[in-house]
Amino acid sequence: MAIVLVTGATSGFGEACAKKFAANGYDVIITGRRQERLTALQQQLQQEHKVAVLPLCFDVREQKAVSDILGNIPEQWKAVDILINNAGLALGFSSIEDGDLSDWDTMIDTNVKGLLYVSRVVMPWMKQRRTGHIINLGSTAAKQVYAKGHVYCATKAAVDSISQGMRIDLLPYRVKVTAVHPGAAETEFSEVRFKGDKDKADNVYKGFQPLTGQDVADTIYYCATLPPHVCINDLVITCLQQANAYYFDKE
Ligand code: NDP
Ligand code: 8X3
């Protein structure tokens, strides 16, 4: 059976993707930093869908952990068909002058460097098999910059550029690369951004019906299951009341 590797599978899009692919018979490698959530998801997917699940607990920012843990998985799991580079986050919402330097480091280290570290381990496996599909989570924030979003938007613009570069690298090996750019989706994203302030997080989604993790997982699954000769390179998905990264028509 085919294998999908989902980074950041303990919540939001990643968790929804793990469930979607498992429900369709894929074996899944799930990663994240929260071991208890990985274990609970592993048990759920194994029981409900009878698929094999490999949980890997590591921080994508730690290059050595990525190469030691992911790089040394059992040989049969290295036949990864689909890598979903999803782990990521925004932290803070302020002008550059008021920005928190450690928030910037965390966003850059996770969204850009973490994605590269994971890809660097998996890409040779796909190249060797001359097949595979890498799906990178960008954002509408990759396409336009919104006020007080500077560094987060820049990390997602980097994901956009890295996806284009990966596609050039991997084309001779017939490995697909898709960048998926969702708009506002209600997951744990805003709770993380506002450091647990639930009121601020809820306020982000007032006056419109945002995307859900399921919407994004369904779209990713569609991209991943097209015929072998077809590749969606770049896909922007928003809810009906969002036109671009910063323009909403709220009630
Ligand atoms: P969630 O906060 O719900 O999920 C984020 C996931 O990333 C968690 O599983 C978390 O796992 C993991 N993660 C974060 N940091 C690390 C790290 N250092 N190492 C390993 N895993 C990490 O957010 P979403 O599902 O909404 O976000 C998923 C992706 O989609 C992100 O890249 C985000 O930027 C992007 N995105 C989100 C949008 C939205 O509106 N929600 C819109 C567009 C893009 P754990 O904490 O267990 O490590
Ligand atoms: C996440 C979407 O608009 O909250 O990438 O930054 S937004």
Describe the protein's architecture and organization.
The chain has 251 residues and is of the alpha/beta class. It has one domain (3-237): Rossmann fold, CATH 3.40.50. 43% of the residues lie in helices and 14% in strands. Helix 3 (63-70) packs parallel to helix 4. The radius of gyration is 17 Å and the shape is globular. The mean pLDDT is 98. NADPH dihydro-nicotinamide-adenine-dinucleotide phosphate (NDP) binds next to helix 1, helix 4 and helix 6. It comes from Chitinophaga pinensis (strain ATCC 43595 / DSM 2588 / LMG 13176 / NBRC 15968 / NCIMB 11800 / UQM 2034). Belongs to the short-chain dehydrogenases/reductases (SDR) family. Pfam families: adh_short.
Features:
251 residues; alpha/beta; Rossmann fold; seven-stranded parallel sheet; 14% strand; binds NADPH dihydro-nicotinamide-adenine-dinucleotide phosphate; binds 2-hydroxyethylsulfonic acid; Sc_DH/Rdtase_CS
How is this fold's topology laid out?
Blueprint: E1 3-6, H1 12-23, E2 27-32, H2 35-49, E3 53-57, H3 63-70, E4 82-85, H4 101-129, E5 133-137, H5 150-170, E6 176-182, H6 189-193, H7 198-204, H8 213-224, E7 234-237
Parallel strand pairs: 1-2, 1-4, 2-3, 4-5, 5-6, 6-7
The structure holds NADPH dihydro-nicotinamide-adenine-dinucleotide phosphate (NDP) and 2-hydroxyethylsulfonic acid (8X3).
| Percent range for β-strand residues | 5-15%
Average pLDDT, all residues:
98
Shape: globular
Task: Tell me the helix content.
Answer: 40-55%
Largest sheet: 7 strands, parallel
The ordered string of helix (H) and strand (E) elements is: EHEHEHEHEHEHHHE
Overall CATH architecture: 3-Layer(aba) Sandwich
